[in-house]
Amino acid sequence: MELRNRLFVGVIGPSNPSKEIYELAYKVGREIGKRKWILVCGGLKGVMEAVAKGAKEEGSLTIGILPDEDKSLANPYIEIPIATGLKEARNLIIVLTSDVIVAIGKGYGTLSEISFALKYNKKVFGLKTWNKELPIIKVKSIKELIEKILHLAY
User: What is the distance between the alpha carbons of residues 73 and 44, in angstroms, rounded to a whole number?
Assistant: First the structure.
């Protein structure tokens, strides 16, 4: 299948997550990888590293949209590092490149990405993330997450 016809799943989350959130992101990455979806993330550490590790272990393509100008800063599980030099403004690129967004954990960067996704009418799925009055699709498990992505994306 052509790359452009595959589902691009953006995963967002904090760079300094708890162990629980890191493990959750890793498991989400594995599920993304099993389906050969393309992972899009911020490319650095924390949730970004965990999800990329899981996706890559299952054979998915991993893309990191980096905040800096140096591609070497990408975590070791990113296959395609994209150096932007845009700092936090790169969050918009992550959102626009993705077909759906999965928010795991909390952080102000994560909240900004959720806001961009909502502004651009992207479906946002939340796992242990912000519980403000945001119109995101809250899910309680990885299984539920995958089922809802499949239902809405295809």
Answer: 7
pLDDT-derived band at 138 (thresholds 50, 70, 90) equals confident
What per-residue confidence (pLDDT) applies to 13?
Answer: 97
CA distance 5 to 19: 34
Give per-residue pLDDT as tens, 38-87. 999 999 999 999 999 999 999 999 999 999 999 999 999 999 999 999 99
Residue partners of 80: CB distance under 8 A and separation at least 6:
61, 62, 63, 64
The dihedral region occupied by 112, where left means phi > 0, alpha psi between -120 and 50, and beta the remainder, is alpha
Cα 75 from Cα 115, distance rounded (Å): 25
58's CB contacts (< 8 A; 6+ apart) are 29, 30, 32, 33, 34
- The alpha carbon of 62 is separated from its chain's Cα centroid by a whole number of angstroms, namely 10
What does pTM read for this prediction? 0.90
Domains of the chain: 3-153 (3.40.50.450)
Enclosing H/E stretch for 21 = helix 19-34
How, if at all, do strands 100-104 and 8-12 pair? parallel
The pLDDT assigned to 1 comes to 60
